[in-house]
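G., before I forget:
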Amino acid sequence: MVIKNLKNYIDGEWVESQSKELLEVRNPATDEVIAHVPLSTVEEVGETARAAQEAFQDWRETTPYARARYMFRLKNLMEERFEDLAQIIVREHGKILDEARGEVRRGIENVEVAAGVPSLMMGYNMEDVSQGIDEDCVYQPVGVFCCVTPFNFPNMVPLWFLPYAVACGNTYIVKPSELCPMSQNILFELFDEADFPPGVVNLVHGDKRAVDALLDHPDVRGFSFVGSTPVGKYIYTRAAANGKRAQCQTGAKNCLVVMPDAVLDKTVPSIMSSAFGTAGQRCLAGALVIAVGDVYESLKDKLLESAARIKVGDGLDEAVQMGPVVSQKSLDRILGYVEKGIEEGATLLLDGRDIQVEGYPNGYFIGPTIFTDVTSDMVIAREEIFGPVLGVIRVDDFDEALNVIHDSPYGNAASLFTSSGKWAREFKYRVQAGNLGINIGIAAPIASFPFSGMKDSFFGDLHGQGRDAIEFFTDRKVVISRWF
Amino acid sequence: MDLATFGAIMSFGLELEQQAAAFYEIAARGALEESFANLAKSAHKRAVRMERTRREGIAEMILEPITGMDGDDYHLELMPDADEAELLRQAIALEETTRRFYIDAAGKIPVREVVRTCIRMAKQSEKRRAELEKLQS
């Protein structure tokens, strides 16, 4: 099999990077090399930013209706290539086909929402703000934006931003994860087929040097980032220092609170999906179950029974319910956390470390793993493991559960399982986290809503998706006029 | 074969339709030619519907493990080179099996559009079975 070097897409052309530095992209189920990704040079990043800047003026003068039509074309092409898009996610990331299809679907939904730009971008006005004077607020595009995106949703996350930015009249640069860069190359084949004008959408592969070059480039006006908290803080700080707007969605340690009145038969499958879906590598993954009062024992038994049944294997096999983690390095890190949990005195209720997947001896597999007797001061309760490791904490009451959540520096997501409207209301009102689930394990906002986040899980003010995205990718200009 | 994911169930339904289309196409001859040719055409359309439903009906928020469905319960032995009486018997069994599959699937997937599709497919299979039974008598 010929292993391809992935190309950049700059100014409407596929371009081979001149960089001598290439990284291997591996299939996590087999450990086979499936592509090479270049670490583009600072000069190549500069060319990309210049191309995007040069395309901006013409693109912003294109009517919103015409820009929306590009979105319709892109949507149709994504539907046509739906299975290809999903399968490449599985091959480079490892998640199961259902999850990959769900990811592509959510990406398409963002394109669909962005296609509403002729309505979404409308401003507002008022007559007679003073005698004979009218005031108008118009939304205008800003210029070149870019995103730096993570490995865990290699197709979808750029689509939280790019469709809105471009539909609003900006031009765009995607810098995908080096671990899972192939999904964006396929998506950019579709941008090319949809015939976006040269320079409107651009793809540049690379590492921190590419990111720094974008952060420092005078033509880049704004940054979107999804990834870890330390990197998000770094990007937010450096973007702000360079006068750029930024939105950085970062780490998480999400809690799933189970009240004594929860409907356990429905709650447990939801927890399974939350904790072990995408092998725990979602920023919305439930990492800690907080069992309130006497639900602990029965919940523990049901979690064990259900998690032990999860079939682990190659995500391309539709019978499989959980795939491998993304890399050997991730696997080693997760195994380190399991060791740490044992050292700290948590009880290893279900040990996924020794799992063998027939026919896949080299895959980065770890089975569902559950710790009980976890306390909120343990490392496994405080740090983001980003793997299929679930901790169970026992607390006496609702307030203690909230204290555990609020002790964490993160505020990405939290869920409550209950039959009580009172507790649900209290939870919605009091919890300091951006994405809340009530009897939902994965509180993933759909495209018309902002993907929220608080505390160390988000740096910025406007989030990805929906109306927030329209605000982020535009300036408001106010015109006050009087005619004599 | 466990059908333990949304994709496994939907893909199984898609394969059932493709299997049905292939069977009806080959078996369309003699007195059964017209009716089987129509059933083959319809099975192709149903396969497209299943593919579209698998693509559009996926809901990441509720991708929870599914239990209690096994592909072996809907196994079909189809021999399109049999005589007409046997072909009719197989076609009736095929429609009954697909009907049962879609009823079971509808009970496992908590997504309104998918349930609607499954129920629609089951009703169609039931109607087709009844029409085939008329031909038998």
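The mean pLDDT of chain A is 97. Chain A touches chain B at residues 79, 82-83, 96-99, 101-103, 105-106, 269-270, 272-273, 277, 306, 309-311, 318-321, 440-444 (CB under 8 Å).

More on Monday.
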